[in-house]
Structure formats: structure tokens, C-alpha cells
Amino acid sequence: MNKCGFSLKSALEVSKQVHFETPCKPDSVLAVFKKYGFSKSHILNLVRRRPAVLLSKPKTTLLPKLEFFKSKGFSSPDVIKIISSYPWVFKYSLENQLVPAFDFLENSLQSDTVAIKAIKRFPRILNVTVENMARVVDVLRDSGVPEKKIALLIRSRPSIMVSNLENFKKLIEEVTLMGFHPSKTQYIEAIRVLSSMSRSTWEKKLDVHRKWGLSEEEILQAFVKCPWFMSLSEEKIMAVMDLFVNKLGWESAYIAKNPTFSSYSLEKRLIPRALVLQFLVSKGLVEKSFRSLAFFNTPEDKFRQNQFVSATEVLRSMSRSTWENNLDMHRKWGFSHGEILTAFVKLPCFMAMSEEKTVALMDLFVNKLGWEASYILPKTHV
User: Fold this and answer.
1) Worst-scoring range by mean pLDDT, 3-12, 83-92, 113-122, 315-324?
2) Which long-range contacts (CB under 8 A, 24 or more apart) does 215-223 make?
């Protein structure tokens, strides 16, 4: 046991489950794993998970299955990760279980590479009989789900293949009754979300949304638009609603109608942009009634090019007194406060110009060329 790296306590626990008269057999097993690149921690992990592996026959049990993985295109790190986390693959017949299971997945997914990814995501799928996997696929086909969408479900949630058939049929029926169409990707997403949680967890999430004044109909409509809306933790739901409803003053119904808001990271996306929006509202550049999905779902690089963000950066770069001086200077040319703010939102950089340059430009165009000041204001960046 010392060769596996076990503590005395762990070694005693393992020794209760496996018995051998000499160390020859376990030594030969360890030698195979070391030859295939398994580290001491990997071996320790798989032996702890399945001590009986130490009683395996290297030539007839271990080596053929290790070579099977390699022959199918699994990399050495993949094989090590799969087996150290799920050593029960050694328990099943290569010819009667592992090969047929892999072939079924490869055929269903139309790619050995994609089949490998599915197995890496959920190694236990190799121990599901072809008959059981076929029954799950048949339920989807009978419900009108296209082959490409079936492949998408298996690829993204391979654990669906271990579903209890009767429960799976009820799940499919529920998804259909909710209004999802089997030809759409949202149908697959709904299956993934619902199959990942218990009924009690679903009810708890409904209750959290109800606390914010949403009806069950509004919640389900949001779920149909964006199934991941209901995959969020109760804590994330509360935090998102608190941000938009309590801090920004938006209606919870607006969030439910635009559920993709909730999918973004609070720390990286929602809170930083909410702060920008609050700042703009406080300066009178944006109405408090402003509502925009685009303000939050625009990619970061494009968002930084937005005039609102530019306006925020200009405002934060100057003191309150400098801002007020710039306002007074423009008022002297006959502009109202509203006209100045409108021009600022269009071209934030114009309020960052020095007083001397602004006066010189206005004097040139208004006094010398005779242009109207109202025509010049939004173009003072020239």
C-alpha cells in the first residue's frame, strides 16, 4: 500500500476490501499504470475509488482496455483523467459493453471526436447499455426532435443517457406542454435545465421569482424565451433582481421579458454597467426611465465605443467646478442646459476642450463666418 502513497488509515480501509497473499499482483497492476503515465496521485485516487482494481489481471483486463482508449483517439491525459476519476470502466466487458457503447455514441454524434468529448464529460456513459441509450434516443425521435438536436443533447449533457425511461418521457411531455418546439435549440436547453434539478429545486426558484412580483405565467414565458433563466442559483436570481429593481428602479416584469439579462456575470458585466448607467442618470444625461437590453448585452469592446461610456469617462476626468464652468461658457453663446447635454451625449469630447479653444471656435464660426451657434454646437470637435 505504501507504493500507492496511502496513509496508514487509508491503507487499512482499502485492505478491508481487497485481500492478496503476495504483493505480486498489485505490483504488476501499479507497473501498468505507471507505464501509461499515471502519477502517484492518479493511482491513489483510482485505488481509493475502486480498491478491487488492484486484483485486476494486467494482460486480460487492464492492457486491452487502455489500448482500446488509445485506438479510438483518446490522448494519454484523457485516458488518465477518465480512469482515475471513473475506474469502474475496468469492471465491464470490452467486447460486450465498452466497444458497442462507443460505437453507438460515435454513430449518434456522427464523429469520433465528439464522442470522445461526451465520454470525457461523463465517463459513466460507457457503462450504459446500447439498448438503454437507444430507448432514450427513440423517445426523442418519437417526440419530433431532429437528429442534429438529439446529437446536441447527447454532446452537451451525456448524463441524459442514464435517465430513468419513464421519468424521461414525463420530462419530454412537460417540456412540450410548456410550449417548446422540438425542432428548436431551446427545446434541448429546456431538457438540460429541467433534468439538472429536482422538482423541489424548481419550485424554490419559482418562489424566488414570485417574491419579486412575477406571476407563474411571466416566469414560464421567460423560461421559454431563455431556458438558462431558471438554471441560475437562488442567490444569483436575488442579486440580479436586487440590482435592477432596487438599485436601478427597473420593473421586474421588464427583466422577465428580457431574461438574457440574468445570464451575464454580476461582477464582470452587470454591476459595472449599472454603475455607468447610474452615473449618467445622476448627471441628467440619461432619463431615469431609460430601459435597454442592448446597454447590458453589447460586447465589451463595442460597449467601450459607446458614446455613453465616452461621456462617463469625460465626466470622471474633470472636477465639478470645471464641468460647471464649461456649462456656463456654452450658455453665454445662447444654449440651454438641455441643448448642451444633448450635444455632449452625441460628442462627449467637445466638453473636454479647453475654454480658450471653445471660445476661439465659436468666435470663428459665429462672429466671423456668421453661422448659427445651434449649428455649431454638436460639431465643435472639429
Assistant:
1) 3-12
2) 218/253, 218/256, 218/257, 219/256, 220/178, 220/179, 221/256, 221/257, 222/256, 222/257, 222/259, 223/178, 223/190, 223/193, 223/259
Q: What is the pLDDT of residues 293-348, one digit of tens each?
A: 888 888 888 777 776 677 777 777 888 788 888 888 888 888 887 778 777 777 77
| 245 grid coordinates | 429593481
Q: Is 106 exposed, middle or buried (0-12, 13-18, 19+ CB in 10 A)?
A: middle
Which residue's C-alpha cell is 486491452? 64
Distance in angstroms (rounded) separating the CA atoms of residues 135 and 373? 76
Q: Cell 436570481 appears where?
A: 237
- Residue the block writes with cell 440574468: 262
Reduced to 3 states, what is the DSSP secondary structure of residue 281?
helix
HSE toward the beta carbon, residue 187, CA cutoff 13 A? 19
Please give the C-alpha separations between residue 100 and each of 115, 127, 336, in angstroms, as whole numbers: 13, 10, 78
| Cell numbers describing residue 47 | 485505488
Q: Please name the amino acid found at residue 342.
A: T
Distance CA 114, CA 122 (A): 12
CA 340 to chain centroid, in Å, comes to 42
Give the three-class secondary structure for 7: coil
pTM of structure: 0.76
